[in-house]
Amino acid sequence: MNFNATLIGQMITFGLLVLFTMKYVWPPIIQAMQDRQKQIADGLASAERGLREQELAKAKAAQMLKEAKQQAAEIVAQANKRANEIIEQSKTEARSEGNRQLAAAQAEIEQEVNRAREQLRSQVVSLAIAGASKILKHEVDEAANAAMLEDLVTQL
Amino acid sequence: MSETGHSATGYIIHHLTNLRFDLTQGRFLHGEEIGGFGVLHVDTMFFSISLGVLFCWLFRKAARTATSGIPGPLQNFCEIMVGFVDTQVKDSFHGRNPVIAPLALTIFVWVFLWNAMDLIPVDLLPAIAGMLGIPYLRVVPSTDLNSTFGMSISVLLLVYYYSIKVKGPGHFAMEVLTHPFGKWFMPFNLLLRIVEDLAKPISLGLRLFGNLYAGELIFILIALLPWWIQFTLGWPWAVFHLLIITLQAFIFMVLTIVYLSMAHEDH
User: Fold this and answer.
1) Mind giving me the DSSP string for B86-101?
2) Does B236 lie at the interface with A, CB-CB under 8 angstroms?
3) Can you tell me the ipTM of this complex?
4) What is the pTM of this model?
């Protein structure tokens, strides 16, 4: 066990290894590690930001939902009001139409009654005349009786 | 492997002998030959460079395809290591220095891989090497003082480099001479500083070496037992060693960071 040229050889080897590590091994690996560290930090930060934005969006959505509900309620109320109005209007129209038809029907009935009455009157006159002429035979002045009967008819 | 005392000693010594190549003579050394400073431990160099290449390949593969998106298993693993080391560096070092963190990562993973070689059965690789005609093989680079001191001395050089660079030569010299007892104790201060700075690489290098050397030695001793009893000791020791190898790699890394951060700060 003694010192010899191996010592120098090992020192040279060591120096070369250190140089190699310094130039080709350490920088890329440490760079990759630092980059990843940064990426992870960025990722975490953006996740945090995303979370906050999501919360904001949630609040906004809730607000919008509330407004929409309110609007819907307003629309329903308006629709109900309008429906009631339409029903009322329809009712009024129906009522007036009914009245109109009733009046027309009454007028028609009256007309019918008048016509029937006229017809009846004229038939009564002729019937009376026929009756009278049967009763009195030819002894009656037709003209005078007719005038008298006419009188009678008007009094009916 | 439990034979006579002599062959047991020979077995241990054989396991603790490096494959030595004398650069000055241009030949492999055999037996008890020690050689001078020109000797190279081929096995130590081979395994530490192989493990270094493994480390570079693995982490480079992860780094090349590194994405900030969803990481794959390999990238995940490398990111765990990088993140772990980065945390350690940020905990004890507050300046800005692009070298320290990659340096710490290299030390941690490389030393860990060195130590992990200790978990391979002690006879496996030397036996394979023996079949290939290689007489000696030590597979754990951190049981070679040259490895641990190569690293700790490099760390010390970096400490000096940054001390002088950050504080300026004049200020650094003032600090060496006047700390901690003021300018009237200059020689004494200098002596203290020398002891302090010698203690750094020696404690770093010897701690790692001592732990792993002892660990390997115990594995070798366990391997001397009859084969049917070995697992009763080998298994607990291996489990315990899992802790040791990680801990030693971690300690080496943390102390390096601490020393380098001290180099950046005024006393």
Assistant:
1) HHHHHHH--S--TTHH
2) no
3) 0.89
4) 0.75
